[in-house]
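Shape is hard to put into words, and the shape of a protein is harder than most. The fold becomes a row of whole numbers, each drawn from a learned catalogue of backbone shapes. The outcome of that step, for a single protein, is printed below.
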Amino acid sequence: MKKTTFFVACFLLLGTLAISAQSNYATALGLGIDFGDGQTLVGPSVKHFFTENHAGLGELTFGDNVTFLTLMYQYHKEFPNADGFQWFAGGGPSIAFFDGDSDVLLRPVVGLDYKIANVPLAISFDWRPWIYFGDTNDDFEAARFGLSFRYTF
């Protein structure tokens, strides 16, 4: 739990110290929900823009006897004439911790991000399948989605 607190604190510190070119928000912290086929995972979510179009996402989600640490790179681009509304694409790894064991999964992602004008709230919805290459079997789970509600600052 100390590592998780340290991880979140680092992202918050980066968000408050960084000077970002992103016009909508620099950092956001809130709730991430990973759902679809299988169990629903819920936990803290943080997104930080390093430049106008490049962001990092970190989530620590919990389910029934499993914990996922997900780190993603996301390339963002605004829709023309739609302030605060962006599409994004990217990916990264997820590490699943369960029953004294762990697995690493690859997570591509595409989605939408909306920062509500004059309100410190951003909402994201994305498609985030997982690809697992294991010792005994490979697995591709296409029906996985993410929904996030984050406070922006």
Observations:
- The mean pLDDT is 87.
- The chain has one domain: 2-152.
- The first helix runs from residue 2 to 17.
